[in-house]
Amino acid sequence: MVGRAWPTAPGRCLVSSAMAVVVALDAGTTGVRAFAVDESGQPAGYRYREFTQHFPRPGWVEHDPSEIWQAVVATASELLAALDQPVAAFGITDQRETVVVWDRRTGRPLHNALVWQDRRTAARCDELEAAGHLPSVRHLTGLVLDPYFSASKLEWLLGEGGVEAGPALAFGTIDSWLMWNLTGGRAHVTEPSNASRTMLFDIRRLEWSAELCELFSVPMSCLPEVRPSSGRFGVTHESSGLPAGIPISGAAGDQQAALFGQACFEPGMTKNTYGTGSFVLMNVGARCPDPVEGLLSTVAWTIPDGSTVGQRTDYAFEGAIFSTGSAIQWLRDGLGIIGEAAEVGPLAEQCADTEGVFFVPAFTGLGSPWWDPYARGTIVGITRGTGRGHLARAVVEAMAYQTRDAVDTMSAHAGHPVTALRADGGASVMDVLLQLQADQLQVPVSRPRIQETTALGAAYLAGLAEGVWSSLAEVSDHWALDVEVAPASNPRSADAAHAQWLRAVERSRGWEHHRG
Are 389 and 237 spatial neighbours (Cβ–Cβ below 8 Å)? Predict the structure, then answer.
């Protein structure tokens, strides 16, 4: 697979890679980044803009879709104005499960977007599980019945949210919303990695499931067309506020895009992105895996190949961890312990250990492998001697412990033991985190020179479609190591610390149930 040349679709013109860059539009959970990549896979410039987080009730998280779109236009416009090279294509990557609904006639949102972190439908998911729907959902989608995914959010919008399920209704994840606006309403589309996170998509048949749409009372007419992850979705329209005629030729959910950007093209290759949450993905190849307790099965990407079918779909196991970088934001914004996120690493390194303090950042429940929407944030082991440094280190250690929880489950069931981990995301700049992670996993942890792997993956998917790069082998050759950290702690002490962490996790679980 890695050495296969990339087929060019009929009518496509191969772009001279010396003449152009590819721009990734990375619409994350807290902000939007426009990121340009040249033909050698090197950054050619970027712009970033945050957008507002809305918390109307405890456990509810919303975004304004129009503000996200405005941030895309602003960052892309600023970047394009600064570039000397022409743009070969846009690639899109996004916060996956977040739900947007809009009116096809006006293009206006009908409600705030319900963010992947939102937990308002937890009771509904419990009802569906109690009614015996979990096995069918697991088999069709690879997911679990959890409010993290889109289906129950969309059902809520069409019920309590007051959104009318009429012929003008359009639904999409953030990628669909951006492509609708980029093309001036001419493309209502998505691709399999995003579709696979909605809980409405059959990941084996690679199509929307009528059974699941009926279960969640979702009209299939509102769903976007599903196209391959690498290929032309449309071109920019002058009404978008960006230059007209730029191809939009690649898209993937943020974590699958990071897996692609980390060049994890072979089964068994594994990455972890330390972002707002952390997401461990292992490429498991072209066969859709059976459901595994504690893990998600997901589509990694659908891409062209030289087969008679013309394309192939690769799958991944995923461990989804809801809160890691958001815990650093909480230290900054909630407690005022740090002034900037970059301070947490040096502060954590001031303490050799936490002196028995453990922090479970279950702000919106726990993801893999626990899947407990009723868990809540917990700090245990505090004494009069506990200080800022101990809390900062406990937050960093929690990232490593949560990743181990997911990786242990993955190694036990995937058939591909994790023998090395490629790390990326904002927190991966902390060497102390990489060392803690290597110690907990007892495998080497590598950080690439270019850590914006989510944007890089989206750019590669788009550039492959437009001929900027010719093959996965060429993309893989661009991956370059910054640092590799080997385990420095013996397994016994790492296991003892992890056992204490698991005690803290147990105290966080089910808390919301007990309170009410």
Answer: no
Give me the domain span that covers residue 52. 21-261+449-482
Residues 332 and 233 in one domain: no
Question: Do 335 and 380 belong together in one domain?
Answer: yes
Tell me if the pTM is above 0.85. Answer: yes
pLDDT, position 338 = 93
Give the Cα separation of 198 and 391 in Å (integer). Answer: 36
Backbone angles phi, psi at 471, to 5 degrees: -160, 165
Residue 278 in domain: no
Q: Phi-psi category of 107—alpha, beta or left, where left has phi over 0 and alpha has psi -120 to 50?
A: left
Judged on CB neighbours under 10 Å (0-12, 13-18, 19+), 411 is middle
Q: How far is CA 476 from the centre of its chain?
A: 21
Res. 306 pLDDT band, cuts 50 70 90: low
130-158 CB burial, b ≥16 within 10 A, e <16: eeebbeebbebbbbbbbbbbbbbbbbbbb
Pairing outcome for strands 278-285 and 311-321 = antiparallel
Would 302 be classed as within a structural domain? no
What pLDDT is stored for residue 466 in this prediction?
95
- Tally of CB atoms within 10 A around 309: 9
Asked whether residue 202 falls in the same domain as residue 347, the answer is no
**Quick one: CA torsion of 167, 168, 173, 178, rounded to 10 degrees?**
150
Kindly state whether residues 121 and 136 are assigned to the same domain.
Answer: yes
Dihedral over alpha carbons 404, 406, 411, 417 (to 10 degrees): -70
Shared-domain flag, residues 46 and 152: yes
pLDDT digits (tens, 9 = 90+) for 223-265: 999 999 999 999 999 999 999 999 999 999 999 999 999 999 9
